[in-house]
Please model this.
Amino acid sequence: MTNPDDESTPRPAGPTGAGEPVSPPPASDPTPPPPPPSQGFPAAPPPPPSSPPAAGAAGASTVAPTAPPTTVNIAFWLYIVGAVLSVVSGIITIAVVSGSRADQVRIIEQQGGDLKGLTAQQVADASVTFLVTWSIVTLIFWAIVFVLFAYFMRRGANWARIVLTVLTVLSLLNLLTGFGTGLLQVLATIVAVVLMWLRPSSAYFAAVKAAKGPRV
Model:
């Protein structure tokens, strides 16, 4: 029979037992662990300071004038008036030449020259046809060129201003015909030329040319 007091008998470990004392569980650390290192990308460096624009870039950014000056606008409308007067002058010339056929026949018969087998009526008809055709061509030419080049001139094309100046000199021939309207046309275009070459107009053409820049 086993003696309960026998020291060789193993005894259960416990708080009241005689065996080795059991160490208490370690207390938890109240300090939380440090967060893991961030896995994102590093912050972008600040942008470098902007450099001032170069001198050439400032010149290239020149803005063209938005509207022509008053002198250019008046010159434009005077050329439109000149085109209208050219049409009126041509119509008057055609009407007068067509109505003078009978007078031309009478003059040809009175002269009695060599008509090379043609009658006076045929010669008069040929003369009237030539004058009417010439009047129509002149009418169309002046009406178109005045309006066309005046349009480009108003937009700041210096070459159109030069062409209009040359055409105005050539239009002095209209003083010989037109029965008064030719004179009005010439006067209107001369005033337009003067306005185109005044200082405000020249400054406008120069500004438009500078805004376009040199061709590369």
